[in-house]
Amino acid sequence: MTHADVLVLLAVRLRSRAPAPLIGVTDALLGGSPTTFEDRLAAAEALDQVRVRGEEQHRSLTGAGEAELVAHLALETDAAGRADVVTSYEAFLPMNRAFLAAVQMPDVPVEALAEMIDDLHRILDALEAALPRFRSYRARFTTALDLALMDAEWITSPTRDSIHTIWFELHEHLLATLGRDRTTEP
Fold first, then answer.
1. For the segment 16-29, what is each residue's pLDDT rounded down to a tens digit?
2. Which end of the chain has fewer CB within 10 Å, C or N?
3. Would you tell me which CATH number, out of the four given (2.40.110.10, 3.50.30.10, 1.10.10.10, 3.10.50.30), belongs to the domain 3-67?
C-alpha cells in the first residue's frame, strides 16, 4: 500500500459518513494528490476497505479498511517517533476537555477560542515536525477564527470547516495515528 493509499483511508476515517467530494478535500489537506483521489478511493472501495452508503453516497471504513489504516499508521508513527506523538496527544487531552466545555456555552467568545488555539500551536509544532500530514490544521484554524469574528456559525457549524469541525478532525487524526478510538480515552 502506498502512502497515497493510506491518506485516502485516513481521509475517509476523518470525514466518516461524508460524500466523496468532502473526503477529497480532506485527502488533499493531508497531502494526497487531487488528480488521483477518485482512483484511490475507487480502489479502496474495490478492496472492500471503504463502503458506500445511502443515496448521498456517504463513505466509511470497513473493518478491513480500519485494520489496514491502523497498521500503516503504526509503522509511520513508529518511524517518526511514537513517544513524541503520544506526548502531544496527552498534552491535547486537557485542552480538549476545556475546548468542549467552551463550545457548549452559549455565545462563547471567539477570543477565548483563539487563546485555546494559540495554546494548541505548541502541540501542532511537535506533530508537524514528526508527521507532515498535520500541517494543514494551523491555517485552517486561522481561517475559521477570522470568519467566526464575522459570523458565529464558524464556531460550531458541522456543515462548514468551523473551529469545532477542525478541532474534532484533529482529535480524530491523533486517535487514528495512535491506533486508538474514543472509547479508549481516559
1. 888 999 999 999 99
2. C
3. 1.10.10.10
